[in-house]
Amino acid sequence: MKVLVQRSGKAKVLVNGNLSGEIDKGLVLLVGFCEGDNLEKIEYMVKKVVNLRIFPDEFGVMNKSILDYGGDILSVSQFTLYADTKKGNRPSYKDALAGEFSEELYLLFNKKLSEYVKVESGKFGSDMEVSLTNIGPTTILLER
């Protein structure tokens, strides 16, 4: 499982030109799954995301989590996190989990996240337009 975490101001995702999810501040997550991902890994990653201290404290030091700082999460499925370009310029996605299994894990991931913070999302398997203001910029790749 990979989650690309971006500290964000305003962010939104459109599906076919229609708003699917939007936040004013918080985190934008790009989420991908691979073979072997399961509930245990999802629960670990959810705790990692919500406790990741990448928001500023009163001294401007990245010392607060989204739970301390406030804000919401915009979660977007992103199988291309598993792109492999070792054999050339055309990426292979052989390590990404098949869509029907991935969607189930993605929905579970969002459900577990929503136990901690408000979660908005894109639509799994759709072409999406994601817009965000990356604050910092702060972008961290989490893997499990």
Overview of the molecule:
The protein has helices spanning 39-51, 66-69, 99-113; strands spanning 2-15, 18-23, 26-32, 55-56, 62-64, 72-77, 119-121, 128-143. By secondary structure, it is α/β, with parallel strands linked by helices. The strands form 2 sheets. Strands 1, 2, 3, 6, 7 and 8 form a 6-stranded mixed beta sheet that branches. The protein has a two-stranded antiparallel ribbon with strand order 4-5. α1 (39-51) packs across α3. The N and C termini lie close together (5 Å). The model has no long low-confidence stretch (mean pLDDT 96).
Describe the structure concisely for a colleague.
The chain is α/β, with parallel strands linked by helices. It is built from 3 helices and 8 strands; from the N terminus they run βββαββαβαββ. The strands form 2 sheets. Strands 1, 2, 3, 6, 7 and 8 form a 6-stranded mixed sheet that branches. A two-stranded antiparallel sheet has the order 4-5.
Number of strands: 8
Major β-sheet profile: 6 strands, mixed
End-to-end Cα distance, whole Å, is: 5 Å
Which shape, going by the Cα principal axes? globular
Helix share of residues?
Answer: 10-25%
Number of helices: 3
| Proportion of strand residues | 35-45%
Mean pLDDT: 96
* Uncertain runs: none
The chain-level structural class is alpha/beta
SSE sequence, one letter per element = EEEHEEHEHEE
Backbone CA Rg: 15 Å
